[in-house]
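Example record used in the benchmark description.
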Amino acid sequence: MTDLPKLHIAVLMGGWANERPVSLMSGEGVAKALEERGHKVTRIDMDRQVAARIAEAAPDVVFNALHGVPGEDGSVQGMLDLMGIPYTHSGLATSVIAIDKQLTKQALVPHGIPMPGGRIVRSADLFERDPMRRPYVLKPVNEGSSVGVAIVTDEGNYGNPIARDAKGPWQDFAELLAEPFIKGREMTTAVVDFEDGPRALGVTELKPKSGFYDFDAKYTDGMTDHVCPAEIPGNIEKLCLDYALKAHRLLGCRGTSRTDFRWDEEQGEEGLFILETNTQPGMTPLSLVPEQGRYAGIEYGELCELVVAAALRHHAAKSGDGDG
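Model output (structure tokens):
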């Protein structure tokens, strides 16, 4: 249980990233839950004057419900650090690293956390040749929620090589991350900070009803079945919990994070790979962190307060030393 005093909390949401609609849903859910628990809430739909609007509101703490750039990449975190205002979720350095999939690999793989191999490719080069054997995955280096992800297969309709006029992330991004496609099951684990430290809540398996777990499957009601807890062997469940907690700590996440996995069950433990760790996971009614919270006995409003409490603890411990 949390023991928060009644606070004035600014919920920062919206913005101009691809994930704006998701952020608005997350922010409104959080705002209502905090109001129901007796807090004063100011809703702020982020625009270019956001610093002035936050200063005018003068909240005790900012709940960062933004997704994508610039709310998840360190930009907003740096602004709030300069303003000296406590804020939820991860700080500047963690945000910069975790949103960049290559930097995340460099931070986690040397510590024994398995992630798919991969390399950065120029989108223009894809129209000449494949960067690796098919099937492979192409994704933006620093977007979340499966924005702009393409799975390139021999049977796919992108062409071979990929056609210039084929619809895909190569039309929107100059560079992409190419990774080998890992067949198997999609799973995720949420980590939440409590007063005595972070805890991994559980494992959910995601079963999209068509295609793969893309942006639409994540945020359209009825398009994906969530199996929580996942029906997986105990050793795989333990590995997911351990890897997610270790990633949370190694990256320096705070408040909450969510780590996504692919598991090729034919390979056993060797077939489990982390795809990414999300520092600002969704808080919509369909989102996975609230769902795992309920599984762990944490209702939605309490989960929001736990994230706020972590922000206040960090700000108090920081004592003005400038560490985001």
